[in-house]
Amino acid sequence: MTMEPWRAQLLAQLRAYATRPLDAGEAAMLAEYAPFIAAHTDCLWRTCWPGHLTASAWIVDPARQRTLLTHHHKLDRWLQLGGHVDGEPDLLASALREAQEESGLTRLRPVSAEIFDIDRHLIPERKGEPAHWHYDVRFLIEADPAEPLVVSDESKDLAWVPLAEVAKLNPSESLTRMVRKTVNLA
After folding, report:
1. What SS3 class is residue 67?
2. 109-144 tens-digit pLDDT
3. CATH numeric code, 5-185
4. Rounded distance between C-alpha atoms, residue 132 and residue 113, angstroms
5. What secondary structure does DSSP assign to 125-174, as a single string?
6. How confident is the model over 59-109, as pLDDT tens digits?
7. 18 class by beta-carbon count within 10 Å (0-12 exposed, 13-18 middle, 19+ buried)
């Protein structure tokens, strides 16, 4: 059976990502990706249960001192920007689209086309949707904090947050791990 080019490319990106130093938690999550992608031909669609791929933008200022977070309306938590890929196999393009839609920023610049972080997290059941997993692929994106922000319907608020203060808004390992990676880039 021939694998679709996007699927082969994504699996290659994930294999390349696996060669980086990862903590035990991230390595365990990463080990779930390839079997999930192989088992679910519809993994790019939000109708795929028990989960689906999502794409996120970890947006930083050029000095890499702050990150842009959204106070997510449905989840009521401060998070990075991102969301469903809706069938788009180019996850970096999806992350950029989501970031623009959720922030109004138009001058987003990928620092790299390589994966910056991954996270697998459970989305709770709500309004007829069963609980399901998000297999989130994250990219490092740079933006100008002087560019005006536009809060979308998906958010309660947007804020440029100093990296040292991210854990005060959301102490989850998912966000603090990206803070550590950003600090280590300097």
Report:
1. strand
2. 999 999 999 999 999 898 888 999 999 999 999 999
3. 3.90.79.10
4. 27
5. PBTTBPPEEEEEEEEEEE--TTSPP---TTEEEEEEEEGGGHHHH---HH
6. 999 999 999 999 998 889 999 999 999 999 999 999 999 999 999 999 999
7. middle
